[in-house]
Amino acid sequence: MPVIGDGERRARLGRRQLLAPSVRAARVEDVADAVVGLHATDAATVYLSACARLAEPSAAEVDRALYEDVSLVKLLSMRRTIFAVTEGLAPYVSSAAARAIAAKERATLLKHLRDHAEGWDEARLAEAEREVLAALAGRGEATTKELSEDVPQLRETMLMSAGKAYEARQSVGSRLLRLLASDGHVRRCRPRGSWLSSSYPWALVPQWPEVPVREAKAEVVRRWLAAYGPATVEDVKWWTGWTLGDVRRALADLGALDVALAGGAPALVLPGDEGPVAEPEPWAALLPALDPAVMGWRGRDWYLRPEDVPALFDRAGNAGPTVWWCGEVVGGWTQRADGEVVWRLFRGAGAEAERAVAAEAERLAGWLGEVRVTPRFRTPLEKELRG
User: Care to name a GO molecular-function term for this sequence (predicted)?
Assistant: First the structure.
């Protein structure tokens, strides 16, 4: 059985995730495909992750793909996380993950409407959806508030946790638009404000071609193994959020090959991918919270020391900003209120690493300009560095 050690895995990470300077991409679509989707739960992550892998980092390049060419679309999909994926991959992600999540979202919303609002049932929910889609067809794009002028039902609310100290009213409109997005009927348009804003209008999207679920799952896993392999079955299951049966079926459909990791642990690669990969030049990267590189595997010891996890992750398991050197996480970083990008290394990495990290910090601060980024999920080291 071929053995793929930690050094080989780090070389693959640097090359295949476009982190070494010599393999950086010109277009954001190439970045999204290389990592099988950019994490988009935090609006800033899409831009920061993409620009870390672009030869010429630019928020305008990400805007082009998201809002002008619409060649990147955001889907609530793997692990119930929002991913920005290319339009070529979107039909597979939709069939493999998003539609099942949308079905659960629909059932949950319908239950909440019946329990916490008045006069709602499945027929009324379907009618409200049709009216929203018709309103968007007429307007072109509109915010939820604007759509509520055409569809008054959107202004209704649900009283959640009534009588509790944390009771709150949820907007029917916000939940219904989220459901339509999960179902692939609408998309988020350019935010009203900066690219960090979460206030955005909605627009209709063309319906993607139907892909059989089993075929779609195999294609998603094929792309993921090409970017992240070798990986364990547990890694694939964690990243996809699927059942163990679905994961094993997809791997069998691909004819995935058995290999061994350092220490002998079993793992899998695509057929023909068991050979060595040329090690890239030394590289440093400042990656954002929830970046695909740090959130790509369940087993992370080969690139992240367990003793560094408490400083870099919040209590829910969300990764904060990380500093990388040649395929390993060696520290964390943040941007302060005055725009300065500061970092801390957990251990001595040498003068070459220090210079490379400083250059990446300067590169990052350069394209950010006057923009100030605060991660949605704050971690202990990030808070400490911000001061």
Answer: DNA binding
